[in-house]
Amino acid sequence: MPGILLGDVFPDFEADTTVGRIKFYDFLGDSWGIMFSHPKDFTPVCTTELAFAASISDKFTERNVKMIALSVDNVDDHIFWSKDVMAFNSSTAPLPFPIIADANRKLATLLGMMDPDEIDRDGNPLTARCVFVIGPDKKLKMSCLYPATTGRNFDELLRVIDSLQLTAQKKVATPVDWRPGDKVMVLPNISDEEAAKLFPNGVTTKDVPSGKKYLRYTRL
Ligand code: BEZ
């Protein structure tokens, strides 16, 4: 089955986009990347999603993350629809990220982004609401796949990127609903001795009925 798994190297494809033809690795450079598909231009949920993504694009830039969208529509439709997307934000500025035109569905099929249950009025298959986060090493760090009927939360994607970037640097994991500045958890494969050396702010352990000392917190 086509698709891409965590840790796989993301393919270096060429594609037509709203900013011309791109080579994906050249587009990314040394940055992180977030690639997200939507089912169809000129549809309501997609418009709200891309408008929100555009409104917080500065926050992705601050985190050194390049954004790129994708759907099965052509470049002309993407460019025309982009104006609606920005108008939804009461803006006449250009969309701050490109959209890939994958009209032949080659890329979406390769990457496992198609939604088998979703077809347009002409019976053509559509992309799901897929998200890939790609690291500077070009490996897949996170993916998610929502159906066409459920819009995503782009604030949550920023939170995930904060966790991915932190845990790429430090031997920690981030707990439920973690936000930057909150306590983090010591990785289970780190011994108490190593943890004491790695985390000068100290490690606290929450007691649990099992008596096992696995809920170890630290502050960075
Ligand atoms: C939407 O964006 O609203 C949408 C697109 C395709 C199927 C269902 C909803």
Contiguous runs where pLDDT drops below 50 for at least 5 residues: none
Radius of gyration: 20 Å
What fraction of residues sit in β-strands? 25-35%
Helicity level: 25-40%
Write down the domain tally. 2
Q: Mind telling me which CATH architecture of the largest domain this is?
A: 3-Layer(aba) Sandwich
What is the distance, rounded to the nearest whole angstrom, between the alpha carbons of the first and last residues? 41 Å
Count of extended strands: 13
Globally, the shape reads elongated
CATH fold-level assignment of the largest domain: Glutaredoxin
Name of the CATH superfamily of the largest domain: Glutaredoxin
Architecture overview:
The structure is a single chain. The protein has 220 residues and is α+β, with helices and mostly antiparallel strands. The protein folds into 2 domains: 139 residues, 3-Layer(aba) Sandwich (Glutaredoxin); 49 residues, Antioxidant, Horf6, Chain A, domain2 (Antioxidant, Horf6, Chain A, domain 2, 2-Layer Sandwich), CATH 3.30.1020. A hairpin with a 5-residue loop joins strand 8 and strand 9. Helix 2 packs across helix 4. The model has no long low-confidence stretch (mean pLDDT 97). The site of benzoic acid has 9 residues, from helix 2.
